[in-house]
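Minutes, structural biology subgroup

Action item carried over from last meeting: produce the structure token record for Isocitrate dehydrogenase [NADP] (Floccifex porci). EB confirmed the sequence was re-checked against the source entry. Recorded below for completeness.
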Amino acid sequence: MEKIKMSTPLVEMDGDEMTRILWKMIKEELLEPYIELNTEYYDLGLVHRNETNDQVTIDSANATKKYGVAVKCATITPNQARMGEYNLKEMWKSPNGTIRAALDGTVFRTPIIVKGIEPCVKNWKKPITLARHAYGDVYKNTEMKVPAGKAELVFTDENGNETRKLIHEFKGDGIIQGMHNTNESITSFARSCFNYALSTKQDLWFSTKDTISKLYDHTFKDIFQDLYDKEYKEKFQQENITYFYTLIDDAVARVMKSEGGFIWACKNYDGDVMSDMVSSAFGSLAMMTSVLVSPSGVYEYEAAHGTVQRHYYKHLKGEETSTNSVATIFAWTGALNKRGELDGNLDLQEFAKMLEQATIQTIESGKMTKDLALITSLENVTVLNSQDFIKAIKNSLENLLAQ
Ligand code: NAP
Ligand code: MG
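Output recorded by EB:
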């Protein structure tokens, strides 16, 4: 078979530890034999980030803006322990944070559903994609512990005019908190959500507590609605999808009873909490993909999990690992499919879909990694090591390609 060609490059961001090992295996076994991979390679491994004073992360984000599509391996976010382990010059920032800020993007997380790994919520038949607004609110708050006295909200405009509102007259000890968001950030969030709904042809749900927070949360609701009416309504109608706003309480109740198959956009805190609930209910972090979508329509695909450090240390000791590569494979297929879509490269899109199918078929046939074997309802399961699982997927892929 002739290898599939790619006219435009894809930005490839390599990473750390066990996922870096999987990355290489995936490329060698599942991609390079079939595709003339055209990638612009950035090594975001911590060693190279440290060597370049993290410039490589900024360069990779700029390349993503240029080419429109990136695929990223999990990377270490340095902490005190890593400073020593890697002899770092500085405690470099989270690459995901840097890239998200550069692209002004929103992260969408979607579970990969296979037969035999059933969600805890039995009526969930299709994936629920969660979008979290990743700016402001309680994550950029100012807090105080106070004694008895008067707490006020004070705003000073650019001309020095003050506006005051009473928060509370304290009779004894208490706590206060100030937080903010910007219309610009909320608009970018809304735009990314509408774009991603169109791109994946799924309904979009959005929920806040606007009945209680009549100015703060209501502004989120209004910005979404205005943008929808002005720019997205017709496009949604053409794709036969809907935008649906409801109160957060009602959304939670409806989500539990739904069969899935939609995108749920949440404010920062709601998204933080709900994404953990949704992902654990679907089974495994190793089966969760993540895509960063910018308001201008740039896409960066990755696995939702980290570098699987514990497995990497076993691997370094020469012990066998059974690390699940599914989310990383789906990061590649997501990116290849999007590249194909943007370039009108049907062969590439078809290959991406086939590789996803091969991955799902492999698990459904009972061949899987240990994390899945522990939670599957399938019987007669074969637990494979990291390498053999990828080889088993290659086998399924060869069968599909031969058909
Ligand atoms: P993690 O890498 O997600 O792994 C936590 C645990 O979850 C693992 O020890 C393993 O459990 C299980 N697990 C996760 N992915 C798995 C997979 N593909 N296959 C099988 N089991 C899997 O989180 P972490 O250990 O807390 O973080 C390690 C490093 O990753 C940190 O340096 C952190 O900064 C980084 N991180 C990066 C990203 C990113 O780049 N997007 C995201 C999160 C964390 P068992 O050990 O029980 O088998
Ligand atoms: Mg959380």
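Discussion: The pocket of NAP (ligand 1) is lined by residues 74-77, 96, 285-286, 302, 305-310, 323-324, 371 (CB under 6 Å).
Next step: EB to file the record with the rest of the batch.
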